[in-house]
Write a structure and sequence with these properties.
Blueprint: H1 3-20, H2 42-54, H3 61-74, E1 78-82, H4 85-95, E2 111-115, H5 120-128, E3 132-136, H6 147-153, E4 158-164, H7 173-183, E5 186-190, E6 198-199, E7 202-203, E8 210-214, E9 227-231, H8 234-244, H9 292-322, E10 329-330, E11 338-339, E12 344-349, H10 357-366, E13 371-373, E14 391-392, H11 397-405, E15 406-410, H12 417-433
Parallel strand pairs: 2-3, 2-4, 3-14, 4-5, 5-8
Antiparallel strand pairs: 1-9, 6-7, 6-11, 8-9, 10-12, 12-15, 13-15
Helix pairs in contact: 1-2, 2-9, 3-9, 4-5, 4-8
Family: Belongs to the DegT/DnrJ/EryC1 family.
Protein name: Lipopolysaccharide biosynthesis protein RfbH
Organism: Candidatus Staskawiczbacteria bacterium RIFCSPHIGHO2_01_FULL_41_41
Length: 437
């Protein structure tokens, strides 16, 4: 048999294996309802095996194909695939410190505006690059940056804005793009929880200078671990690829026949003809994926529209039910031009004499319905950030409210009708137990 024939036989067996796995029946109160997770079938498994049979191991044909397809999906020119969304954030911020940017380069001590109520990997690259995070409060309901406070936070030291579309709910891009233009700021959109969300009919991650994404199992699509940085800026793209590949200066460009000219250049103080595969223009990292990850991602990407619809349906169903209890809960709010792709649904427990956020969370968890806080709450209250150099612009009272009163529940595609009904029934019992009919 030929290699191709053997592959096809293996793929058939993989498909048979997947079909042989019988899903466990859902038993309310006995079967856990996760807040997020993998949703896949035989196509992802075949892709994974296909890549493993190549045994290329590092980024190869599947990585190249995924970058092309992901760029097409979002409508951007360039996509750099990384080993995680956290690495994508690190790459994006570090790229702004490149000497290749000339006067627009960020240097230690420059300020980047972010929010206090968020996830550490939006904040960490700012600190790791010797830059100063400026913390601005969020608005309750949408949990995105407060535009009024953002405007007041900008000073002569402000060089960039790096914020997330919180839980897949787009922030006010109209206002932020005006500020970006007026003050000549860089804008990085953290879309790690927001793939598929739109603003004015356009995907988030395509408005700023760069957008980042994550493919961790709980996100809109998964490849286990993985992430991307996308950009329409060719110079930023060159910098990102260099930083991802050890800081290597060389980028293979078939149009310029660079591979055949490897020994034909003079770089800095290096001798003429030094192999340009080993010339380094940045202090970089190795943040490559294995080819098995994008092999899974390609199958997931084809399912993304259906996943987006399922998240929207689950979120709408839950919000319709919870609207009956708005005296006690603040439901999420959305800007008129936004079309969220919910990663999870945030709920704020208002002050009332009947129950607290912790009461509600413990009751749901007891009934095997997973919950999460809104990430780190007010990050400045976290142990890791007690002594960092930073600036706070205005009060962070809403960030503190998020820390004390907000939690989220899942709406991912793995939550089917039976699981959703269990969530609703459990919430009904909770409200009834607290004399709320």
């Amino acid at each position: 048999m030929s290699e191709e024939s053997i592959r096809k036989e293996i793929f058939k067996k993989v498909e048979e294996f997947h079909r042989s796995k019988k899903p466990r029946p859902f038993v309310p109160g006995k079967t856990p309802v996760p807040y997020g997770g993998r949703v896949y079938d035989e196509k992802e498994m075949v892709g994974l095996v296909d890549a493993s049979l190549d045994f290329y191991l590092t980024a190869g044909r599947f990585a190249k194909k995924f970058q092309e397809e992901f760029s097409k999906f979002l409508g951007v020119k360039h996509c750099v695939l990384t080993n995680s969304g956290s690495s994508a954030n690190l790459l994006a911020v570090t790229a702004l410190t490149s000497q290749k940017l000339g006067k627009r380069r960020l240097v230690p001590g420059d300020e980047i505006i972010t929010v206090a109520a968020g996830f550490p990997t939006t904040l960490n690259p700012i600190i790791q690059n010797g830059l100063v995070p400026v913390f601005v409060d969020v608005e309750l309901g949408n949990y995105n940056i407060d535009i009024v406070k953002l405007k007041k936070a900008i000073t002569k030291r402000t060089r960039a804005i790096f914020i997330a579309h919180t839980l897949g709910n787009p922030f006010n891009l109209d206002e932020i793009l005006k500020l970006k233009k007026k003050h000549k700021l860089w804008l990085i959109e953290d879309c790690c929880d927001a793939l598929g969300a739109k603003y004015q009919g356009k995907y988030v991650g395509t408005f700023g200078d760069m957008g980042t994404c994550s493919f961790y199992p709980g996100h809109q699509i998964t490849m286990g671990e993985g992430g991307t940085v996308t950009t329409n800026n060719p110079l930023l793209y060159t910098i990102l690829v260099s930083l991802k590949d050890w800081g290597r200066d060389f980028i293979n460009d078939p149009k310029k026949n660079t591979e055949k000219k490897r020994f034909s250049y003079k770089f800095g103080k290096l001798p003429f003809g030094y192999d340009h595969r080993y010339v380094y223009s940045h202090i970089g990292y190795n943040l490559n994926v294995t080819d098995m990850q994008p092999a899974i991602g390609l199958a997931q990407l084809k399912k993304l529209p259906a996943f987006m619809q399922a998240r929207k349906k689950n979120a709408a169903r839950l919000q319709k039910f919870l609207a009956n209890y708005e005296p006690y809960l603040m439901l999420p709010t959305v800007l008129p031009k936004s079309a969220p792709c919910w990663w999870a649904l945030p709920l704020l427990v208002k002050k009332n004499p009947h129950f607290t956020r912790n009461d509600m969370v413990l009751y749901l968890e007891k009934n095997l319905i997973a919950t999460r806080p809104l990430f780190g709450g007010n990050l400045l209250k976290q142990p890791a950030y007690g002594h960092i150099k930073h600036r706070v612009a205005g009060s962070l009272e809403n960030s503190d409210t998020v820390m004390h009163s907000v939690f989220m529940v899942g709406v991912y595609p793995g939550i089917k009708e039976a699981q959703m009904q269990h969530i609703i029934n459990t919430l009904k019992r909770f409200f009834y137990a607290h004399r709320i009919l």
